[in-house]
Design brief:
- A hairpin with a 2-residue loop joins strand 7 and strand 8.
- About 35% of the residues lie in helices and about 25% in strands.
- It folds into two domains: about 70 residues, Ubiquitin-like (UB roll) (Roll); about 100 residues, Translation Initiation Factor IF3, CATH 3.30.110.10.
- It has about 200 residues and is α/β, with parallel strands linked by helices.
- It has a four-stranded mixed beta sheet. It has a four-stranded mixed beta sheet with strand order 5-6-8-7, covered by helices on one side.
- The longest helix has 18 residues.
């Protein structure tokens, strides 16, 4: 018989996640799986705890609380927590985080400044970010919103196959915005100085 060990105490974080371990499993009967993945059948929770502690020297962890009856596995609680943490870290590592960068324009932005901003947009897109281009109209400038729209269209035309437009230029109050994202074409050409003029 393996030596018994004191039951592990679940932490506050585990309780908030609904994870129940050992004496925190209040349900009267559970379906039990041994450390090798073999089914031990449905048992009284008290008996399952006894088996986990005395026969295996391990913990009883509720892994499927919504099954009927809930499913518990006999395993090392510390090892289980480590594996779960590792899975979470792997999932985070594999997530694609898309950041939305913002470029601000004015209807009066000259060609030189516009070229600089286009370089920034190109850089952001190359990094896999989305870019929100916003243009603020002051006072009566909004009556010439068509000029702002023309400038936005010129940006789209200059970016060419480098970008796709996710939100076309849209006027809301005194601000016009559009959103562009990187094209799926990995080798999309960058705008040349000739295209920018």
């Amino acid at each position: 018989m393996k030596p018994t060990r004191p039951f592990s105490n679940s932490t506050r974080d585990d309780r908030e996640k609904g994870l129940r371990v050992n004496h925190r499993i209040r349900i009267p009967k559970v379906r039990v799986i041994d450390p090798d993945g073999n089914q031990l059948g449905i048992m009284d929770t008290r008996d399952a705890l006894h088996v986990a502690q005395t026969q295996f020297g391990l913990d009883l962890i509720e892994i499927s609380p919504f099954a009927k009856p809930p499913v518990c596995k006999i395993m090392d609680y510390g090892k289980y927590k480590f594996q779960q943490k590792k899975k979470t870290q792997e999932a985070k590592k594999n997530q694609t985080i898309i950041v939305v960068k913002e470029i601000k324009l004015r209807p009066t932005t000259d060609q030189h400044d516009l070229n600089v901003k286009l370089k920034h947009i190109t850089k952001f897109l190359a990094q896999g970010n989305k870019v929100k281009v916003s243009m603020r109209f002051r006072g009566r400038e909004v009556v010439h919103a068509d000029l702002g729209k023309a400038k936005m269209d010129k940006i789209i035309q200059t970016l060419g196959t480098l970008a796709v437009v996710e939100q076309h230029p849209k006027l809301e109050g005194k601000q016009m915005t559009m959103v562009v994202a990187a094209s799926t074409g990995a080798n999309a050409p960058k705008p040349t100085p000739a295209q920018q003029n």
